[in-house]
Design brief:
The structure holds 2 protein chains of 2 kinds. Chain A has helices spanning 36-44, 80-87, 120-130, 135-149, 165-177, 195-210, 222-228, 246-257, 263-267; strands at residues 15-29, 51-65, 69-73, 95-100, 104-107, 183-187, 214-218, 231-236, 239-244. Helices cover 36% and strands 25% of the residues of chain A. In chain A, α4 packs across α5 (165-177). Chain A is an alpha/beta fold. Chain A is globular and about 65 Å long. Chain B is mostly helical. Chain B has helices at residues 2-27, 31-61, 63-68, 75-88, 91-105, 121-145, 149-163, 178-183, 187-197, 205-229, 233-236. In chain B, α2 packs antiparallel against α7 (149-163), α2 crosses α9 (187-197) and α9 crosses α10 (205-229). Classes of the chains: A alpha/beta, B mainly alpha. The interface between A and B is medium-sized, with 27 and 21 residues.
Chain lengths: 269, 237
């Protein structure tokens, strides 16, 4: 896959992310078992590897200015997570280019990289190091992050394997949003924790917006997107069908899905 | 593939007979020296084995991290190499203690006392780490494409142990047979290691050239293979 980095000097200063004609496709091996044994057996029979090409994102162009909060909606398999991974530098573009201006913090899956044997406090340090912060930077913020996670007393110094799923996601969310990123990528992370923690998370998100951080949110919680975002895009089968005000996009999306404006559809689809 | 299992079984039987012969040979020489040669050889070989096996699994076992975080992927095999080194280093005091006790208790030991050549050991270990890390990069990449690589590797490592100068001494090979020693990426390093620890002598120039050759070759080959495929990992995992 070709690299598609672009020198930052060519990118306008007001943009945090610039996506130009981005397409991401990859081949998946249709074979049930990817083993050397199967490869040798197949080669001995003169057969070729059966692959299928998946076009996850097709010719997408998007400019995201600094300080904007962009919501991404779309049905399962629309290419939302692939797009986020590509912006984060995890998946390389097949064609086109992505230019990023700033430090990215990702929350694409909760608690990734956490060590089950370490305490919550140690995992905060681990998460910070993984996000590219220095040890002294993280240590100065560890208490604030631990306080934000608001775990029951004493849990922050216990191994995370003893945590409930909710506690685990609280720590993961706290680490991601408190790393003072320039660009924050959130994939289905708004449902972390209970109602009180959700409110706290929303306040923190609003604070990040006020600090002119750039945030990209993938979520099926449309009401949350309407409240937090100032722009939304709708992806369908890898293509951008619409972009604009979040209320308009979510309405179009709901009409497309033919589910109507039910409370449940705004909460979690 | 019944043939391959039969072949592996046959190889193990052959190695077993070979080991018996080795024991017969060793019984004619100083037994404590032989024991020390086997001990330091095994400790060193298992360091390389752990480095390669843990490194080979590191990319596929770190799949979630690779899919969700952007970072240099080579950190995963590198952390495995550090982990293997942390397991290996405590074995050195154990070996030194055994040698000291042996020298105090047994009168017929031929092991040397302290020599300045011991200062070459860190260099040999660095070369061993580079070689093992390079090989772990190669196998880690292979394991992304063929998930049974680590299973196969566990068999390869067993055969590799018998093919390395651990259970036998390098000077048992003479003439053209010595080529076997230098075709093995761990052969020159294990020979040089044994020469310093057991004989108290400086490694021969051919051993040093062999060590350097395999360290450079494996890190360049493994590194190139890994870096050229690194961008594919998030898709293939």
């Amino acid at each position: 896959m070709p690299s598609a980095s672009k020198p930052l000097a060519q990118m306008p200063d007001n943009l945090a992310v610039k996506i130009e004609n981005l397409s991401i496709s990859y081949k998946i091996n249709v074979e049930s078992k990817k083993t050397l044994k199967n490869a040798v057996m197949r080669a001995s029979r003169g057969e070729r590897v059966r692959t299928r090409t998946v076009e996850a994102v097709k010719n997408l162009t998007l400019d995201i200015p600094h300080g904007s909060v962009v919501g991404i909606v779309g049905a399962n398999g629309a290419g939302k997570s692939t797009l986020m991974r590509s912006i984060a530098g995890i998946l390389p573009p097949t064609t086109g280019r992505i230019s990023v201006n700033g430090r990215i913090s990702t929350l694409l899956a909760l608690g990734v990289g956490f060590n089950q044997a370490l305490s919550g406090r140690d995992n905060i340090i681990l998460g910070g190091l993984a996000a590219g912060m220095s040890r002294s930077e993280i240590e100065s913020q560890t208490d604030a992050i631990a306080e934000f996670a608001d775990l029951p007393e004493g849990f922050i110094d216990m191994p995370v394997r003893t945590y409930s799923a909710g506690m685990y996601s609280r720590v993961a969310f706290s680490v991601a949003v408190n790393m003072t990123p320039d660009i924050l990528l959130l994939d289905e992370a708004l449902s972390a924790g209970d109602a009180a923690f959700k409110e706290k998370s929303f306040n923190r998100m609003r604070q990040l917006c006020a600090e002119a951080r750039t945030i990209l949110i993938v979520s099926h919680a449309l009401s949350s997107l309407n409240e937090l975002c100032d722009q939304a895009i709708w992806l369908h089968k890898g293509q951008m069908l619409a972009s604009g005000k979040p209320e308009d996009i979510t309405e179009q999306y709901l009409k497309f899905l033919n589910v109507g404006e039910l409370p449940s559809s705004y909460e979690d689809l | 593939m019944p043939y391959s299992y039969w072949l592996i079984h046959f190889l193990f039987r052959a190695k077993l007979y070979f080991t018996r012969r080795t024991i017969n040979y060793f019984s004619q020489t100083n037994s404590f020296t032989v024991l020390c040669h086997i001990l330091i050889g095994l400790f060193t070989f298992y360091f390389a084995q752990n480095c390669i096996l843990l490194g080979a699994q590191s990319i596929t076992s770190g799949g979630r991290l690779i899919l969700n975080q952007a970072f240099p992927r080579s950190l995963l095999p590198l952390s495995s190499a550090i982990s293997a080194a942390r397991q290996f280093l405590p074995t050195l005091p154990v070996y030194i203690s055994i040698v000291i006790i042996g020298k105090l208790v047994l009168s017929d030991t031929q092991l040397p006392g302290f020599t300045w050549n011991y200062l070459l050991i860190p260099i040999i270990l660095i070369l061993l780490t580079i070689t093992s890390f390079g090989l772990s990069l190669l196998f880690a990449t292979m394991n992304v494409y063929f998930r049974d690589t680590t299973k196969l590797l566990s068999y390869i490592m067993r055969i590799w142990l018998y093919a390395s100068p651990v259970l036998w001494q390098p000077d048992m090979l003479t003439g053209w047979y010595r080529a076997i020693l230098y075709l093995n990426p761990l052969g020159p390093i294990l020979s040089a290691n044994s020469r310093i620890w057991i004989d108290g002598m400086t490694p021969t120039p051919s051993q040093l050239i062999g060590c350097l050759f395999w360290a450079i070759t494996s890190i360049l080959l493994g590194g190139y293979f890994f870096i050229s495929r690194e961008r594919d990992f998030a898709v293939r995992i």
